[in-house]
């Protein structure tokens, strides 16, 4: 499975479309994997690291970079889609814009027929925050399966990282829709990326 995942992510991957609202979604014909989490946590960077491309998804230092649901087709023939999404909890953006993003993301995550798994990204320097717990509870209620993924692992010491990983794992165990497998990743160093590729492929095939 690992080798198959590696090949797939090294092969053809193409931007399909940007959906600013639910009426613009592509037809749900293939498995989808979504990237969720707080603004600036590294969703778009992780998508680029997984696909080994520098700027497939647009990233930025400024929170609020991704403003729509962005769909990426993986494989030729098409195997599954990756969905980059706007972040949660971006305080500086206008209130109704933040609300609009939240509804868009939540409605998508709750109601998408072909959504096989959501990756809920958590900054490894901060661990789980209330806004992350809100996403987790929403997904639990919708019985929508998700993986917690720690990001920016290069920014902290390995000992601190292990502690955060254990604490996050313990909390994930209390959430019915949280998958027991957790990932610590860095889009900078590539740590954890190969493992996550395999998990994504496995989820897409279920
Ligand atoms: N050191 C380090 N920096 C990272 C990593 N991942 C992301 N970053 C940086 O964090 C910032 C935000 O990354 P993005 O990928 O744009 O974050 P996002 O979650 O897509 O943000 P929004 O689209 O605004 O919700 C950028 O400056 C990235 O370079 C990582 O693994 N290590
Ligand atoms: Mg983004």
UniProtKB/TrEMBL annotation:
Domain EngB-type G as annotated: residue spans: 29-206
InterPro entries linked to this entry: G_ENGB_dom, GTP-bd, GTP-bd_ribosome_bio_YsxC, P-loop_NTPase, Small_GTP-bd
Source superkingdom: Bacteria
SUPFAM superfamilies for this protein: P-loop containing nucleoside triphosphate hydrolases
UniProt xrefs under Gene3D superfamilies: P-loop containing nucleotide triphosphate hydrolases
Cofactor: Mg(2+)
Function text: Necessary for normal cell division and for the maintenance of normal septation.
Sequence similarity: Belongs to the TRAFAC class TrmE-Era-EngA-EngB-Septin-like GTPase superfamily. EngB GTPase family.
HAMAP family xrefs: GTPase_EngB
Protein name: Probable GTP-binding protein EngB
Native organism: Sphingomonas alba
């Amino acid at each position: 499975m690992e080798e198959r995942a590696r090949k797939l992510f090294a092969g053809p991957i193409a931007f399909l479309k940007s959906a600013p609202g639910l009426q613009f979604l592509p037809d749900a014909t293939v498995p989808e994997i979504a990237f969720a989490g707080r603004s600036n946590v590294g969703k778009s960077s992780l998508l680029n690291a997984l696909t080994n491309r520098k700027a497939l998804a647009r990233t930025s230092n400024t929170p609020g970079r991704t403003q729509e649901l962005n769909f990426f087709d993986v494989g030729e023939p098409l195997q599954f889609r990756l969905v980059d999404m706007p972040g949660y909890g971006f305080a500086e953006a206008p209130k109704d814009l933040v609300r609009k993003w939240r509804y868009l993301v939540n409605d998508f995550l709750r109601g998408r027929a072909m959504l096989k798994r959501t990756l809920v990204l958590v900054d490894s320097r901060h661990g789980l925050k209330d806004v992350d717990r809100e996403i987790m509870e929403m997904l639990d209620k919708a019985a929508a399966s998700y993986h917690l993924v720690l990001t920016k692992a290069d920014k902290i010491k390995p000992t601190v990282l292990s502690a955060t990983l254990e604490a996050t794992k313990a909390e994930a165990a209390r959430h019915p829709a949280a998958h027991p497998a957790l990932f610590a990743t860095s889009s900078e160093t590539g740590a954890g990326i190969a493992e996550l590729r395999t998990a994504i492929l496995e989820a897409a095939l279920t």
